[in-house]
Amino acid sequence: MTKRAVYLDHAATTPVRPEVLETMLPYLREEAFGNPSSAHRFGRAARAGIEEAKRAIAEVLAVEPNQVVFTSGGTEADNLAVIGCALAARAAGKAFRVAVCATEHKAVLAAAHAVQHLGGEEIILPVHRSGLVDLAAVDEALARGVAVVSVMWVNNEVGTTQPVADLAERCRAAGACFHSDAVQAFGKVPVQLRDLPITFLTLSGHKIGAPKGIGALIVRDRRAVEALIHGGGQQFGIRPGTENVPGIVALGRAVTLAAAEQAEFARRTAALRDDLERRLGTLFPDLSVNGRAAPRAPHVLNASFPGTDSEALLMHLDLAGVACSAGSACTTGSVEPSHVLTAMGVPHELGVAALRFSFGRTSVPEDLDVVVGALPKIVDKVRALSAVLHR
């Protein structure tokens, strides 16, 4: 009998939604395959798809359509926000300095490192044990002068939800730009910018049922960013290059669907997350839930199983038909704890024993039965092996 496959790694990527795929198809076929920069009917059809996607995303986020800049994904959008803003500040004679949270996605941290390599300065903002950014450190960075502060809305590994409204206001008052990577926030918690002075916001399609390779950066002030790619001048020159039309229309559709379903998604996934957390806590009294002391997005559970190794746990869970991750997909394979758990002060022995279960639109209660049915034997096996190896 074939094992029932359980996918609890939706924070890594999600399946393309049927409605989104259907939206894409005309732009892959002869109906609207043209280059959106062409003036003929084929180009105009492609351009119309892009403009409609812009309008849809702008309406959901309460921004202007011309503030939506399409990218190849979240990584490019993060780099454009952090490095592009720093370069624009340098050109204007302002501080060539960026401040980013220690628990950011590697795309933001690497972008901050790149600014330093270019002769600027990076400030790494510490977090508390809960995962929340240290606000005093933010104020100190702002007092020194920074081009941009970047703090992700929802952490991709532990689900910590940062006080973005407060952070954005602090940056506005200090005359600095504020960027938030909302890749794990959009569709999970309410996200719209009408009353928030957020300068840049990152979105990624494959986290919400669109294909991989498409994302967007909301740019509220074009003067605050300098292009990293140079070419034909598309998208106001901020991100030139022939647009990925099928991906763009897919993102527009996925954003609309995710926004409409956000409240119900949060209710369902929070119930699943809380139920799994409760059941695992009963099975493993020494279970340590990472990030539980702070507000969390509903779809992520990060827990450490003392005396184990997350890579070994993952291997055995995969054999049992369960897909989850160790920290984040970007660090899978590492023998060290994730940088997020390390920054939060999670002890090494718990950091290397952490699993992330993340829920999505297709997750069901029966998934939890498979997990809790498989984990006790797996944990016992891994603990026994670990005890032998460390004698």
Summarize this, please?
41% of the residues lie in helices and 12% in strands. It is of the alpha/beta class and 391 residues long.
Please describe what this structure looks like.
- The two termini are 39 Å apart.
- Mean pLDDT is 95; it is low at 328-334.
- The chain is built from eleven helices and twelve strands.
- With 391 residues, it is of the alpha/beta class.
- It has two domains: 6-14 and 262-389, Alpha-Beta Complex (Aspartate Aminotransferase, domain 1); 18-258, Type I PLP-dependent aspartate aminotransferase-like (Major domain) (Aspartate Aminotransferase, domain 2, 3-Layer(aba) Sandwich), CATH 3.40.640.10.
Please specify the SSE layout and strand pairing.
Layout: E1 6-7, H1 18-24, H2 41-61, E2 68-71, H3 74-91, E3 97-101, H4 106-117, E4 121-125, H5 135-144, E5 148-150, H6 164-174, E6 177-181, E7 200-204, E8 215-219, H7 245-283, E9 288-289, E10 300-304, H8 310-319, E11 322-323, H9 339-343, H10 348-351, E12 354-358, H11 365-389
Parallel strand pairs: 1-11, 3-4, 3-5, 5-6, 6-7
Antiparallel strand pairs: 2-8, 7-8, 9-10, 10-12
Helix pairs in contact: 1-7, 2-7, 3-4, 5-6, 7-11, 8-11
